[in-house]
Amino acid sequence: MTTTMRDALATYFRDNGFGDDGGYGDAWVDFELGPIPMPFPNTSGRKWAVRFHDLHHILTGYRTNTVGELEISAWEIGAGCPNAKTAFVINLSGLASGMFFAHARTFAAFRRGLRSRTLYAEDYERTLGEDVEAVRARHVGEPSSPATLGERARFVALGLVGTIIGLTFFALCLPLLPLGLVNVFRKRARMAREANGTA
Questions:
Q1: How far apart are CA 5 and CA 43, in angstroms?
Q2: Which of 68, 133, 173, 187 is most solvent-facing, going by the fewest CB within 10 Å?
Q3: What is the mean pLDDT of residues 54-58?
């Protein structure tokens, strides 16, 4: 039995509590830095990129917790982000964080990405109608040999650039921390209402 990317995406939204539209229409989104929610505007570039980003979670199996997001960031950097400048910048920050806080897993995801290809250059609607396993076979590769010095050097270099971007991003978002806390409270209250079947 085959599963389309569209069906897998609906399951992904449900399993992660993202709502029917995955939160794509939200004005603000929260990147959780551990337990700290860091809000930032849900720009048009981010809205476009996150649709593919979520499909990448499905294809790679990386989770939506903190470490999983660091892994998917590194995977996307390795696999390439054509037509996705916003994703590239955000992913560099994620790769840098992973380099410091989950080095082995983030580097493994980066190497896996070097042998893969993202969906950013694909037609989104057409991809949704395809079979998950077919898309995975076409876009997700696996390392078959030990890491090379060149791969390690490239990872560190990208991580250093990402560190600068990440620190700048953190400084810009820090004043918005109270808004992030309010957003978390409102989302949890909404999810509790939905779980109880109330409006």
A1: 24
A2: 133
A3: 98
